[in-house]
């Protein structure tokens, strides 16, 4: 929205458009200059802002925790170390409660998911106009700050979890065991195998879909509301903005937590024999 | 909101972060936490042990104190007894000594008196004889009147 005054529709669409780099049928490899161009690029495009901010948040998480981990003493911890340890213990307790198998990967996975998603969600508390306006100054046309409002990001993580579910199901139960489980639950009778298979495979596929879409839906809806509030005159918008932002401190944490817990629960059921 | 390669990119980033976390982030924090937990548990253990030890030691100290007090009281009592006994003995000794001294002084006095008496008697008898000689102006045969004079002296 540089220069000319956009209509509310244009304003909203602009704020919800990712910065896309990809292969356009006519322009070749380039940045998309409109939503239409981005859509034309099809699958072979990448959301630079989503990737950039999510990797930045991931690196921030790794850096922060690595720093604390390296300096971690067994003596009296500092304030930062205490804070990190609180998060750490929170996740560890959660994993211990929800996961009963023996797998050293689950707890670090849960920690990564929880903190990473939390940090990505946290970007939502940055005022909605700040990032687009700021990047517009440098000639960047679009900047959607929050990676979790991009279904690619949430579904990407969910697909990662899905791969792990499949991997551990086969690893723990064996390929035959896994197929057998799919075939004979919930109805343990040979005549109902097709029915069971359909049910179980749908159930299996719904797991990552619901996981990714839940996070995306919550974050996207919240973002849209923030943008709508931003359309109000500045002297009234704070009356809605502030409560919504405060409410979102809860939503942000809760969604990160839900994603993490469900991942652990899914992986737990992948490890269990039925 | 198009589904595109970002999906794959995010999966890769996810995998890398999880791997990195598992490899370099989780172990040091976990180790530090559990070591501290163990340390604190050990410390609490040691503290409770020390409290117990202290209680035992206090009890022992009380016991010792009580015993020594008893002993001291006993010793004191004994010494009291001993001292009163000694005083009694000394008093008895002094009394005896006094009596002995009084008795010897008495006997000495008696002897002295007797001796003085004898002497006086001799002198009196001599004086009597001298007096009688003077009165009679004549010599009296001492041997003749000895018996008479002795008789006289004895009556003095």
Topology (SSEs and partners):
The complex is a heterodimer of chains A (274) and B (156).
Chain A: H1 8-15, E1 20-24, E2 28-31, H2 35-40, E3 45-47, H3 48-71, H4 79-98, H5 106-122, H6 130-137, H7 151-184, H8 193-231, H9 234-271
Antiparallel strand pairs in A: 1-2, 1-3
Chain B: H1 6-136, H2 142-155
Helix pairs in contact in B: 1-2
Percent strand of chain A:
under 5%
Distance between the termini of chain A: 56 Å
> Low-confidence spans of chain B: pLDDT under 50, at least 5 residues?
none
Averaged pLDDT of chain A: 88
Largest sheet of chain A: 3 strands, antiparallel
Query: Largest beta sheet of chain A: what is the strand line-up?
Result: 2-1-3
- Termini separation of chain B (Å)? 169 Å
Rg of chain A computed from alpha carbons, rounded to a whole number of angstroms: 22 Å
- Sheet/helix structural class of chain B: mainly alpha
Q: Could you estimate the helical fraction of the residues of chain A in percent?
A: over 70%
Helix content of chain B: over 70%
Tell me which protein chains meet in the greatest interface and how many residues each side has: A-B, 55 and 33 residues
Strand content of chain B: under 5%
Molecular shape of chain B: rod-shaped
- The count of β-strands of chain A is 3
State the major sheet of chain B: none
Oligomer: heterodimer
Rg measurement of chain B, Å: 60 Å
